[in-house]
Fold these 3 entries.
Entry 1:
Amino acid sequence: PYEERLARYRSIIRESFARKKSVIVIAPTRAEADDVFTKLSRGVEDHSFLLASAMTPKQQREQWEHAMTHDDPTLVVGTTVALSVWRHDIAHYIVEHESSTYYKSSERPFIDARRVITSLARHAGVDVIFGDTYARIETLAKTFAHEYEEVLKPQMHQQTNAAVSLVDMREVPHAQGESPVLSPQATDAIRRSIEGGERSFIYATRKGHTPLTLCRDCGTVLTC
């Protein structure tokens, strides 16, 4: 969860500062960078700098110079432009919301900033931390293959207090010649969510790769 990640980031930053090391935190968008900066810079405002591509060139240059020339350990938070801060005392790159599509450019040469960060870190001998509510499949695969170590155990499901009901469709009354797709309970829940201005998510499975649903009795194609 987001707040738990931020708490862990703050701990990493404190540990790094104690070792006279700096930390660079990268977020995919300016809005996320602003929020992360606000929450991580508390108590270390004099050693924290925000650097984002949405700033004017003058603001970017001023923040970049401050971050580069600051004598003490530094926290730099920003979008990928913050990678231009190349200090000799960097201990960690933290990639927040690592599954965001904004890390990959939509135009040629289609650079993936996450790969750039990994390459920079490998070159400098610096640790990289990928953080997200749900990590990418690539990240999980490397974790399970022991290429990555867990800072916090990856979360595989959303914590929720929602009630879960299982309806046996074999017990749902069938009208003659009809096979209901949804149970009365599901239909009623969807109707109530629509009337209440809420959203519903219907997840359905099917066998094989056919896009058709056929009646087992008569072979009629279910079109709606």
Note: The chain has a mean pLDDT of 89.
Entry 2:
Amino acid sequence: MSDQKLIRIDESMLEGAISCEAGDGWIRPWRLPFEQRSLFPPEDGIQARAMMAAGVRLRFATDSSCLALHLVPQAGARCFDLTVGGEILQTVTAEASAGTVEFRDLPDGEQIYELWLPTNATVELCALALAAMASFRVPSDPRLKWITYGSSISHCGGATSPARAWPATAARARSLNLTCLGYGGQCHIDGMVGLMIRDKPADLISLKLGINVQGSLGLRAYKPAIIAMVQIIREKHRTTPIILVSPIISPPREDTPGGLGLSLNRMRAEMEDAWNRLVAAGDQNLYYVHGHKLFGEDLVADYLPDDLHPNGPGYEIMGVNAAEQALDLVLTN
């Protein structure tokens, strides 16, 4: 692009991030509080996943016919989506060592864009380049705020592109402002994550819990951990709708216990019992969704290649199901 208007990226343009790390001419979005990262061990676990930009995007309005994102080059390729009104306009891959991602032939007139950052990579963002005479502003966002917490199945490293991850697909379908706290291999119902969710503004919260704790929590700890996380969040979100979502299907794990004795079917029963106990104790804004409603047996053959994680098209189907089977429990009431 020649004759550019250069806009330095700052935190006000980011949505879906918890915090930002500032470097020499760049900022890196984090999905946990960067200044408190030492309180989220291990460094090579949840911290490493929280550096990845799953669900994070730049939101801005411009009438530019083209735009370029300048970022610090990295060794691997990274995928980006540009959306308007929830619809994907363009998907662009920045090849290894590329420092620019370009989007051309954009719609006429001012549009509110969301530029979705890579699901399974870190990004150090420098600037946006627009046509020289283009307008630019950071608009307010009136959409409801949705926070969702989960494992690699919510992190969606295998999504076709960032805006096609299941939380992104569901958020686009229902026009929600998404914060995705999907951490690959690291959803262990951590108390610090509960505190982080408690302290964030939210109109809707979903907790998709289970698959990772087969290796960390047993029968004695799983149900109390769910109850405790909900109660922690309730300290500041007294009436915010919370949706508990049990694990999606994984055929080898449905009836076979993991190392600490929990099969997925037992986990679903334990989560449903936790939900019943909390409702009986007075929580009238708590919902339970069986994971098979998001991704069940009918999808295994074509969309669950490793018997655990959906493939790219599978994540999109899961996002549509999540909107209809989970989000609509709240949004249509």
Note: The mean pLDDT is 96.
Entry 3:
Amino acid sequence: MNIAILDFETTGLDYINDEIIETSIKIFNKKISYNSISKPSYRGKLGSYILPEITEITNITNKMIHNGISQDKLINDIINFIINNNIKYIIAHNGSKFDFIILKLLFKKHNFNIDIKYIDSILLIKEIYEKMKINIKNYKQDTLCNKYLIKQNNAHRAFDDVLTLEKLLNIVLFDYCRFIKKKTISNVNIYNIVKDKLQYSDKLCNDILKLDIFYNSNDKIYKYSNININEFTDIQKYIIK
């Protein structure tokens, strides 16, 4: 049972409207990975897939995206990669508030059911630091990398962020193993550190699905079934601006 690190780059931070433009999944500490740039199903009035500010953050251009794979091929690729590599655990930094939500909604949209255990590396490192009595001002990946002098190459590109997180996790887990006086720590034990924490992504996904929201990729029309204005306002509270 493998553990994998996941990172998505998207057209924005709205789980309902925005789409994936870059994906990276890497088996933890193995040279096995999936990486792709994907084409959103919606283009703006001027023909662009993403706004200039997204390019500024990620260095992903509309030209790169134009040559990307479709969203349908992307989800099929992700599912096949997970199945073929026997992935049972997925780690992402701040995943419970972003990457896991996107992935779970994709699974729901494509009627894909699999027993995946999700590990938010922020929660994992926070728990480890509390046990080791280590203080830090925040748990952003940049802050943690600076603490361990990890050089970040091409930050906000999916594959580079995954490689950086892998380095960070190896250092943190190595220190934790020395603290608990063990040589290694299993995937199960890594998961057990955070399994009792509130899974924000589970609640959010359930709330979105209860609202019966469907996406029409052809003309960017959203169908909101039986949603009154108060309910829709409530769901907007979860969308990070």
Note: The CA atoms of residues 1 and 86 lie 6 Å apart.
